[in-house]
Amino acid sequence: MGNKYKYFVMLLVVSLVVLLLSGCGSEPKTETVVITDSNEVSSADQSSRPFQVQRIYRLPDRFVNTGQLLGWSSADAVIASFGAMTILKRGTLERLTYPYEQSKAIPGIGNVTSNTILSPDGKYICEFSRSSSETTLKLISLQDGKEKEIDRISTRNDSYVQYVSWSANSSYIGYLVENPVDNGADSLYIYDMGAQTSSKYQLKGILKGDTLLSVNLANDGRSVLLQLFRAKQGQKKVLTMGKVSGKNIEFQYERQFGGDSVAWMNNDQFVFLGTDSSLYEYDQRNGELSVILEKVLDFEFSPDRKNIAYTVYDQNVTYVGKVQGRNIMYNEPVYRGILPTHMYWNPNNKSVLLQGQKQLDSSQTAPTDSPSKESLIIELK
After folding, report:
1. Which of 222, 113, 123, 136 is nearest to 174 (CA)?
2. Residues 131-172: pLDDT tens digits?
3. Confidence grade of residue 365 (pLDDT, cut at 50, 70, 90)
4. What contacts 168, CB < 8 A, 6 or more positions away?
5. Do residues 295 and 275 touch, judged by C-beta distance below 8 A?
6. Gene3D superfamilies, per this entry (predicted)?
7. In angstroms, rounded to a whole number, what is the distance separating the alpha carbons of residues 146 and 110?
8. I need a surface site. Which of 3, 177, 347, 356 has the fewest CB within 10 A?
9. What's the CA gap between 146 and 59, in Å, rounded?
10. Which residues partner with 214 through β-bridges?
11. Max Cα separation, the chain?
């Protein structure tokens, strides 16, 4: 009887060992873990890609090829002017809302000229118009149509106003007044939306023969980027960064420049294209220059500066990436077949509007009646 009991115990032990070994030999359950720079740990899977195209909306041909696109007026509406093809000829403003099929005239807004610039927040347009003796700048509210004159500049001495632009936060308007007769008298005017006042600053460092091209204000209204052709450098295109100092703009940084796009990331850092097609970020606090992307043709940052849409050389592809410090991560192709001349992010950073020329494969032939431009909205999720 004792031997049978010992045999039963041994059999039970062996069975348990076999069961444990078989459990250990089974395939383990695995989980991918991502450790970010901030040391936060999170699970990741294939569906966690930050950019996925949810829908693509093609804008009507009339809106694209007859109108002059101004940008987004809200998260689901874009604005264009129609008939305003010159500074003297006036036209109407129309709004195209989701699902982007039929545009309508904006009620309460009078006719505008081609020199109409939409604020980044979509609430105002700034228009400037010329007469034989002066240039007038005014603000027009898109909510109620109210107009406010913000400046009136005499042009009897051959000066002229150009390159009107908004700061990214819609708090300031910058405009250049050039005087070809009086050497060194070119000025930058900055209008403060909060204080409702305009200040004049002389541009120190702009020389005879230099050709100004654009102005880009930082969100604090104290720093400015100017693009120009430098006469002393054989009319090479340069980007200069200046700061308000008393009644002057004192330039503190200059570099040869490629492309046309520049962007302030904050009041101290800005991004631009170099002549080598690299995307650079410059920090004026310490003079540090960093390459954040290569082989870039054009780019546009989202309003919150967390995303970027960009194109690269030799590809008819638009990419979207996420900004992390001085790196562009998770670069995803979102559309192929158009070479954008303009890119606009909507105010909630969820959609990007592309406008440009259709690009066909060598095997395709474009119909003779095809529109010259195409615009579409890429909605991301």
Report:
1. 222
2. 888 899 999 999 999 999 999 988 877 778 889 999 999 999
3. low
4. 120, 219, 263, 264, 303
5. no
6. TolB, C-terminal domain
7. 10
8. 3
9. 29
10. 227
11. 125
Q: What is the dihedral of CA 136, 141, 144, 145, to 10 degrees?
A: 30
**Residue indicated by tokens 């209008």:** 191
Query: What distance, in Å, lies between the first and last C-alpha atoms of the chain?
Result: 74
Query: Which residue carries 């119909």 as its tokens?
Result: 367
Nearest CA-CA partner of 68 in 37, 40, 89: 89
Q: How far apart are CA 352 and CA 347, in angstroms?
A: 10
Phi, psi of 47 (to 5 degrees): -85, 5
Distance between CA 222 and CA 241 in Å, rounded?
11
227: Cβ contacts below 8 Å, ≥ 6 apart: 212, 213, 214, 237, 238, 239, 257, 260, 262
Laid out side by side, the sheet with 172-178 consists of 160-166, 172-178, 187-192, 197-204, 248-256, 236-245, 223-230, 211-217
Write the single-letter amino acid at 294: E
Q: Which two tokens stand for residue 109?
A: 């807004």
Distance between CA atoms of 251 and 207, rounded to whole angstroms? Answer: 12
SS3 of the chain: the string is: CHHHHHHHHHHHHHHHHHHHHHHHHCCCCCCCEEECCCCCEEECCHHHCCCCEEEEEECCHHHHHCEEEEEEEECCEEEEEECCCCCCCCEEEEEEECCCCCEEECCCCCCECCCEEECCCCCEEEEEEECCCEEEEEEEECCCCCEEEEEEEECCCCCEEEEEEECCCCCEEEEEEECCCCCCCCEEEEEECCCCEEEEEEEECCCCCCEEEEEEECCCCCEEEEEEEEHHHCCEEEEEEEEEECCEEEEEEEEECCCCCEEECCCCEEEEECCCCCEEEEECCCCEEEEEECCEEEEEECCCCCEEEEEECCCCEEEEEEEECCEEEEEEEEEECEEEEEEEECCCCCEEEEEEEECCCCCCCCCCCCCCCEEEEEEEC
- pTM of structure: 0.82
Q: Using one digit for the tens of pLDDT, what is the confidence trace for 304-317?
A: 999 999 999 888 89
